[in-house]
Amino acid sequence: MSHEMRFCPSCATTLQRVAQQEDGGLKERLRCPACDWTHWGNPTPVLAAVVENDDGQVLLARNALWQEGMFGLITGFMEAGESPEAGICREVQEETSLRVKALRILGSWEFLRMNQVLIAYHVRVDGEVKLSPELVEYQWKTPQEARCWPSGTGYALAHWVRSKGLEPQFGAFRPNQSPEPDPAKWPLQHWSHDERFVLPPQW
User: Fold this and answer.
1) Is residue 122 part of a domain?
2) Residue 105 lies in a domain
3) What is the pLDDT of residues 100-148, one digit of tens each?
4) Dihedral (C-alpha) 197, 179, 150, 70: value to the nearest 10 degrees?
5) pLDDT of 152 above 50
6) Enclosing domain of residue 20
7) Distance in angstroms (rounded) separating the CA atoms of residues 48 and 28
């Protein structure tokens, strides 16, 4: 994370790293020495959309802060009081002016560098693209043209490509990034072939 909480939001005392016993054992966290408030540092939920049009193409967009040639999925933060489904429909509409007419969940992935958890959806849309000021350009790609990247939203895109009967092609999202997917995350294993699961005995 680029910044860290420094003061207690309850009493404004400077937070300190203090180890305490928790359900999982001894854990060091930012805690208030005056009122014992704890900063849990829970990940922030971020929504992502693989946006598909009626021609079977996926929408990729470039954020205004990204360098030229970098394109990704439509993403945004959940707001208080909304469901993930309502949130992703809102984000797609706000950022592209497209209306979501159907959606299904693809999965969730961690984005540890930003302390976020990504919740990804496949959405079908209609309408004309009108980008928000946050985005500067976009492109529609066929499943054959789409290149996935080896991090959270890239695996969501890979799910979509595979749902079209194609094997996803991976590449680097930014310069100097490895283009190879994490073998622990891709390809997906059927649960019965995952060593973390034990099959129950047959009766």
Assistant:
1) yes
2) yes
3) 999 999 999 988 888 999 999 999 999 999 999 999 999 999 999 999 9
4) -170
5) yes
6) 1-39
7) 32
